[in-house]
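Researcher: Going back to the complex we discussed earlier. I've cleaned up the inputs and rechecked each line, so this should be the final set. Can you rerun the prediction on the complete assembly and write out the structure?
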Amino acid sequence: MPGDDNTKRSPRGEPFVWLTSLGLAAGLMMVAGLLWVIVTNGTDVFWPKRVAEVELREGAGFEVGGALTFSGKVDTERAKAGSKGETETKFYIANRDAYGASFKYIDDDAIASLSYPEGLLVIERMEYGRAIGYPVNLTAGDGEVVAADDPRFFEELDALVRHAEATRHEIEDLRRKKVGRLSRKLEKIALKELRLRDKHAGDEARLAAELAPLLEQREGLQKQSEEYARRATETEAALNASKLTYRLSSGGERTLEAGGLIDYYAPNTLGLGGRIGLFVSNVWNFLSAPPREANTEGGVFPAIFGTFVMTVLMSVLVTPLGVVAAIYLREYAKQGPLVRSVRIAVNNLAGVPSIVFGVFGLGFFIYIVGGGIDEMFFKTKLESGKPTFGTGGLLWASATLALMTIPVVIVATEEALAAVPRGMREASLACGASKWQTIQRIVLPASLPGIITGLVLAMARGAGEVAPLMLVGVVKHVEDLPMSTSFPFGLDQKFMHLGFHIYDLGFQSPDSEAATPMVFATTLLLVVLVVVLNLGAILLRERLRRRYAAATF
Amino acid sequence: MHSVTTSPIPDADMTPPDHTGGDGTCINVSDYSFFYGSSQALFDNNLDVPERQVTALIGPSGCGKSTLLRNFNRMNDLVDGVHHSGDITIDGRSIYSPDLEVISLRKRVGMVFQKSNPFPKSIYENVIYSLRIQGVKSRGELDATVERSLRAAALWDEVKDRLKDSALGLSGGQMQRLCIARAIANEPEILLMDEPCSALDPIATAKIEELITTLKKDYTIVIVTHNMQQASRCSDRTAFLYLGRIVEADTTETIFNNPKEKQTEDYISGRFG
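Model: Rerun complete. Updated structure for the full complex:
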């Protein structure tokens, strides 16, 4: 048979097809598994799931809030530790104010029945996470009470949600923007006062004369600031006169002041459209809102912004430096042992652990350079105990990462430069172009795709880095985004970062169960961000490549 | 339609192209030896290249034809560790004289390469590249140069409607003619061609050869070729090189019909090489 013939003649190395493909398959499976875990858990956070009302068996030793009935979202089921075949289920029971924790594990054996009552509401609050319960009534600011079975109830509740949001914006504007602006002015005045005291030390009369207008100004500002604070407090009190009362499944009524009410939904009656709408709005909130409650609730916008600004600043610093260095190495330097060893050193630099760069950044950029700048230009502020550049901040974090990623850019640029055909350089030189004109007009445009590839690799590495950032300016929470319209434009400010946010939420959070969903969501976001960055780079590179494709035939 | 404009930037180093005729010697090679590091590529060569004629350099691979050609505009300076003895003069001035800038030399001596090497730019930008690097901004002058050069390179009619398209979309023969147009946009006196047809099909080759015959009215042309027929068809004078030495240089007719040296005869009749 011809088939036998073929098997006999199969070449000796044939099994290696299997071995090599096995290696690839193992790698792919690990990556796919990782992505699966991140994507399912990350999107799960935003999906409005049904809420079950659970009846517990008497005498099983379990109760929630002192009762045998409670409501919660079914989370995960797992085998009980130290037992055979017994399982327990994790419930998201919310109502942290009443129950002390947002999650509880219940033995499956202890559950008597599960039901999905229609009247349950999930209420988003400013504090203590969500509440789950049955609405009882709504007390308006003028004392009017609308019961939950009144047809106007949900209309009124919707109106209250909108009113609460608008009012919170107003209060925030008063407290953060207006008062913040005043306190910055006050800070400047305090600095001026220090400077004057320095200048006229010993000349009491002159000092008093020059200080007088300053003090007057300060008094005015302080009064204004107090006025704003008072108005904010008044507005808040007026808002808090409206209250929502709800009853927990475990019994007991609780009252939520309107100031703490964000939104609500009925998890068991919501249609698919409503669920999708809520999902989208949850995602949007996550992306656009600042975090609340020790980062376990709210969004991650400051972290996205911080990551973005830092990455852009890093690219701005690393690109010119890396490209220029690579041009010298490849185009001008005489190729020899010295250049070869420089090249090896650059390659090795790429392998140095990132924390080393962090320590270097702290020691060099912050203490030496930043300290020097403060000493020279921000002396008064420094003497009042507030360093400007002598402490971690956006600029130094970007500079540290730029230093860390410079080998990536140099190596990629060098390769791109080397790939420009010799014929093209010779053509340019034969036209009477100087070396620099040739580099500038022919070599650089032709190697642009490769340079951009290197830059994106550097950006992806920089955006995902955490360890060095902890030393040079990343913090777990900031009130203000790292930007400003006046010098130094927020460059000296501390900022939030997605990578550090994950670490902080997952491993530094006081309530790790409550933070888990946010960890997954943030991880998913970071992965998506890196993928988008890479895709964008690939598209850009392909476009440039088509435009500057090398002439060969 | 086309008028020959004068060189855009008067160059102190450059005697203006002499268009009055006369057959003075344009390039003179005397006792010229050339070394790549320690290996010698050219041995005590002497050669006269007359003005406004086509001089062909022929010889087997590795005999030093291209090396000699690339020294006429000092392209070999780009290679590490090269040195030479003897001299090459153009219009009586040494190309190695210290007060002659290599950039101005290359403006006078244009070059077309074996592999066509248009820049990844538009056809228009390719032709005016040498003007761009000299900082010429006048739109009228650039347009005129493009038309004049492309007409001279017999490419104008084929590309006049797509000057803004990428040069990389042209066919191999068109690309090579574009490279010729680019070389003559600079108004050089001398045009060096390093096997310009080796990668082209016979029809494209015929076009380039025809072009060479037309161009010699205005330019002194030195062409390196492997193709004996090509040398006999389009050159006025031929030099035969073997192992880094010019064995014989004479009119093309003499070299092909009545060579003085045995080696030349053997090579031309195809007995070796």
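Model: Worth noting: Chain B has eleven helices and ten strands.
Researcher: Good, that matches what I expected from the previous run.
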